[in-house]
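To illustrate this point, what follows is a protein record of this kind.

___
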Amino acid sequence: MASYSIKDLEELSGIKAHTIRIWEKRYGIIMPERTTTNIRLYSDEDLKKLLNVSILNRYGLKISHLARLSQNELKEKVIHISQETTDTATQIENLIISMIELDEWKFDKFLSNSIIKIGFEETMVQVMHPFFEKIGLLWQTGSINPAQEHFISNLLRQKLIVAIDGQEPVTRVNRHTFVLFLHENELHELGLLFYSYLLKKNGFKVIYLGQAVPLNDLKKITRIKEVQFFLTSFTTGISEKTLKEYLENMATTFPQQTIFYTGNQTENIHGGLPQNLVKIESVKHFQEIIEKFNIPQNL
């Protein structure tokens, strides 16, 4: 059983802590446990109910009415609304519920519904990326059950691998080559897999090395294959000093290559780095970057 603070609920639902307290006191929407020091602690059931109420309230149902509905009645109304909408917040909240319940069927249903309506790539950018940003923050603070995060991560990993395998192989000899990898203490590869999908979809050659790759292995790759770009991501906790030292070492080791880096651990890294290091600010930013490198189809 996971345990959430009111700050966690605010982060996951988008509902201000002040509003959550009002809904508790006035309508009894959820009733948290309290520690000996009177700090609120919420369960998975509390979070699910709050997310369902949040979705329905956003679509015009009054809190006073929702407070009288059972969990099953709330769930049925949410499923009905979700089948009709492409609203990003609603899709993300439904994915959070499917993660909490370890419900693969529900995850597939909501993900497939989004893919049908806005396409695979837009679903990854608009829905899955912000969803995992929310989950990643809570995972690092220990607020969510790691088993739940691994469950949903592996389901999405399967989807991404299928999408990557569905891309046409690159046959043009003059195409740029990207090496995608994570450093030795990094295991979170979902973002890296999505970048691999984007690159392959746009016709780039990709050498995907995945998790926990030593720097010496990267050196060996460049002796075997001509490489123009590296791409890596930092999600697991790492100090700003260690991160900067790692990036500077990369830049010195591979002065002829451009090294792209991203991930929530890089948020405080701004400027002062070698010119061959390029920070990816967002998925859209990366899409704009690779568009500049794109080679016309007839070459």
